[in-house]
Amino acid sequence: MEKIFDILLKNRKILHDLLQNTPKEDLYKIPEGFNNNIWWNIAHVVVTPQLLVYGLSGLDYTIEEDLINTYRKGTFPEGEPTAQEVEKIAAYLFSTVKHIKLDYDQGRLNVENYKELTTSVNITLTSAEDAIAFSAYHEGIHLGAIRGLQKALAKDR
Fold this sequence. Notes:
Layout: H1 2-21, H2 24-28, H3 38-55, H4 65-71, H5 83-105, E1 117-118, E2 124-125, H6 128-156
Antiparallel strand pairs: 1-2
């Protein structure tokens, strides 16, 4: 599990750098043929482990539920976020992984009543540990989506 947490934090560093260094107009623009933007992908990566690790474990989320509802699967970008929301997501990129690791290390995620879920890519999660491992895969998918968005935005220039 240590390696998975290391991978998650390294990916989050890439996402944080993108968030800090991408021009705002590119963060929020939805290129033709896409249904979301770079910003949505970054925020979505932050909220998904809340649902898969904590929600399915029957535990309280560690971030605001309104953020989760705004960026969960099935949502789409709705305007530009506030500066405070961007700052919050930027901080959560790291703090949420550290919080999950702490809860994992202290055994708080080892629950017997984890609600099993088969994801849209046909991977069945039966524990918080499965959800953490899946998160690394999920984040890689969204980093790839961001790279595709960057290419489409560059073409539009």
